[in-house]
Amino acid sequence: DAGITQSPRYKITETGRQVTLMCHQTWSHSYMFWYRQDLGHGLRLIYYSAAADITDKGEVPDGYVVSRSKTENFPLTLESATRSQTSVYFCASRAGTENTEAFFGQGTRLTVV
Amino acid sequence: GENVEQHPSTLSVQEGDSAVIKCTYSDSASNYFPWYKQELGKGPQLIIDIRSNVGEKKDQRIAVTLNKTAKHFSLHITETQPEDSAVYFCAASKGGYQKVTFGIGTKLQVIP
């Protein structure tokens, strides 16, 4: 199916465990982003990528790691999950350098217990 | 960095009335202002956007206005319908790789 998909949709993990959230897009968009959504904070950028093998920190990168070995995939890893990382995570992609529409996945609801 | 403030955080209107959501931004270099609608359980979806060289843009029942001098922009929804109920986000960005800064969101409830 064309579009941007995230997996899993829901995840419960324990404090201290490593967890990876997956993001896959079929448009070959250059830019990909990870946001977290928390009540009272809106959408905050964690990491972004301008192309394969190019990534950079966003507003709240601590505790997260990303990679982008292929254009279509942009996984987000929580190296040692903490309760403060309980959130809804959204992946997004955009075609190019101009101001164009960002397409969002359906989100992953992560609970750290 | 850019800071986007959005208000109100919640808004209830009667079906058929208008709804207005206001945002301000801090970075005068920002030149692109999208609005996203997020329905329950879904990711945000672009509904309209405006660039800094335009003061107003309209798409059916939705309009956005931009005041660059005051650094604020607004979303106007006329003749609201129950399906307009959602969370709306304003955002601002500038050129290049386009880090987009979002407001905190407005939960709009349209009462039938």
Gyration radius of chain A, in Å: 13 Å
Low-confidence stretches of chain B: none
- Supply Rg of chain B: 13 Å
Main sheet makeup of chain B? 6 strands, mixed
Number of helices of chain B: 0
Number of helices of chain A: 0
How is the secondary structure organized here?
The complex is a heterodimer of chains A (113) and B (112).
Chain A: E1 4-7, E2 10-13, E3 19-25, E4 31-38, E5 42-51, E6 54-57, E7 64-66, E8 76-78, E9 87-94, E10 103-104, E11 108-112
Parallel strand pairs in A: 2-11
Antiparallel strand pairs in A: 1-3, 3-8, 4-5, 4-9, 5-6, 7-8, 9-10, 9-11
Chain B: E1 4-7, E2 10-14, E3 19-25, E4 32-38, E5 45-51, E6 56-59, E7 62-67, E8 72-77, E9 86-92, E10 101-102, E11 106-111
Parallel strand pairs in B: 2-11
Antiparallel strand pairs in B: 1-3, 3-8, 4-5, 4-9, 6-7, 7-8, 9-10, 9-11
Describe the structure.
The complex is a heterodimer of chains A (113) and B (112). Chain A is mainly beta and 113 residues long. In chain A, 0% of the residues lie in helices and 51% in strands. In chain A, strand 4 and strand 5 form a beta hairpin. Chain A is globular, with a radius of gyration of 13 Å. With 112 residues, chain B is mostly beta strands. In chain B, 0% of the residues lie in helices and 54% in strands. Chain B has no helices and eleven strands. In chain B, strands 2, 4, 5, 9, 10 and 11 form a six-stranded mixed sheet that branches. Chain B is globular and about 40 Å long. Chain B starts with a strand and ends with a strand. Chains A and B meet through strand 4, strand 5 and strand 9 of A and strand 4, strand 5 and strand 10 of B.
Essential attributes:
heterodimer, A: mainly beta, 7-stranded mixed sheet, 11 strands, globular, B: 112 residues, mainly beta, 6-stranded mixed sheet
